[in-house]
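Memo to structure team: turn this sequence into structure tokens by end of day. - J.P.
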Amino acid sequence: MSDSTILAEGYEISTDAGRLDIERVHRWLSTDAYWAIGRARDKQEQAVAGSLNFGVYDSASGEQVAYARVVTDLATFAWLCDVYVDPAVRGKGLGTALVVAVREHLLPHGLRRILLATHDAHGVYAKAGFEALEKPDRWMALIFEKLGAT
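Reply from structure team:
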């Protein structure tokens, strides 16, 4: 994908971090995304700076309507996270189109896997080829909050 590509009729996707409406993305995530409620603005900016970012924009107005970011080395592994579609444009297939665009952008890099976590959007990700882990017992997580760290 070049910096900007038509995503769906009336919408385009871009990996140009300079186009991101950071205030909007922060508001979406910190107030409406169960995994990021209360996330500080500086943490969001730090996350954006260290990630490959995807913004979806209304082609007519240029307004950002969706967001996703990928934490990756672009060689072996990627973690798809912070996928969010503005409630005003949900139901138009933009979430699925965004995830497919992320997949297609990463495909030429030869990554071994892309992981994600979701509570309620399994169907969106399944349409892009994601499936449950074959061997979840092999995966572990270190949760800093449980160690008393913030």
